[in-house]
Design goal:
The chain is α+β, with helices and mostly antiparallel strands and 300 residues long. The protein is built from seven helices and 17 strands.
Length: 300
């Protein structure tokens, strides 16, 4: 009973941390049992719906799903029906020409797909980075038509019944306090430029070198590892003291949920900030579900 209660308390704290971070029978809801290898992207394509609608219907954090999990698929269209109404339900891949400042994470966020699925769509693991002028594949908006013109794709108006998809502008969601931190403390990256954040997202941003190794500043167990909507690649580590260390904006993640991580173990690499186009990560530390100053958090 005590173990069960402790587990509920841990889950409650973890949920608080994430909270800080953050037509008839034809379209009837259905249930999908997640199979090994399934992703939200592949499931959305199978049922001709959107990733976001699945996330909202199932209250999913990020893109974290597991085999055996039951998902509600809102407004799902059967395969046979979809074939007769391609303009409404079908989603086709399109071409996208990389511009200055683009990152895999930024493009994935714009097209509402996980970085993992964007990598799979382009047959890469993302290690090569992106080059200006490079043409990659992106998920097309349902109901849109496109034609290729050289290396770029020009969209033509969809059928009147389809609502056009607007792409939100990428804005810097951080609120900087103006306070600077001590770069000589033990941080996940070496001697970074430390800037404090306030508001809904608290903690610090750490300006780093390109693809620099990101190391744990406190030993503990990985609670979450993967892509979290709005924060890119993230790793959550809980120490034996109960503190939770959230490393966000990583370029690569090198650890998995459930792993025990020693002090100064590499957990990933520094990512590129979507707004500034400069290499940096963010660090948040929580105690009893509340954010604390990362500079005062235990190390070792």
């Amino acid at each position: 009973m005590k173990s069960l209660l402790s587990k509920k308390i841990r889950n409650s704290i973890f949920s608080c941390c994430f909270a800080v971070l953050g037509c008839g029978m034809l379209f009837a809801d259905t249930t999908h049992v997640v199979q090994k290898g399934d992703t939200l992207y592949s499931i959305s394509k199978k049922y001709n719906t959107t990733i976001q609608s699945i996330i909202d219907a199932n209250k999913i954090n990020g893109n974290d799903i597991k085999a055996g999990q039951k998902l509600i698929i809102p407004g799902a269209v059967s395969s046979s029906t979809a074939a007769s109404t391609p303009a409404v339900s079908a989603s086709k891949n399109e071409s996208y020409t990389v511009k200055k400042g683009d990152t895999w994470y930024g493009i994935a966020r714009t097209y509402s797909v996980s970085v993992k699925d964007l990598y799979a769509l382009n047959g890469t693991d993302g290690s090569q980075g992106l080059k200006i002028g490079q043409v990659i594949k992106v998920p097309g908006a349902a109901g849109s038509n496109s034609k290729s013109t050289g290396s770029s794709t020009v969209k033509t108006p969809a059928k009147p019944a389809v609502t056009p998809v607007s792409v939100p502008a990428i804005v810097d969601t951080h609120s900087y306090s103006g306070k600077k931190g001590d770069p000589n403390l033990v941080w996940p990256v070496e001697k970074p430029e430390v800037a404090y954040l306030n508001g809904k997202v608290s903690g610090v941003t750490l300006r780093s070198k390109k693809d620099e190794a990101v190391n744990s500043i406190k030993a503990g167990t990985v609670m979450f590892s993967g892509t979290y909507r709005g924060f890119g690649n993230v790793v959550f580590i809980q120490s034996k003291t109960g503190h939770i260390y959230a490393y966000t904006g990583l370029g690569k993640v090198l650890v998995s949920k459930g792993e025990y991580i020693d002090y100064k173990t590499q957990i990933g690499t520094a990512g590129i900030d979507s707004y500034s186009s400069k290499p940096q990560i963010s660090l948040m530390v929580f105690q009893n579900g509340l954010p604390i100053d990362p500079a005062k958090a235990p190390r070792g």
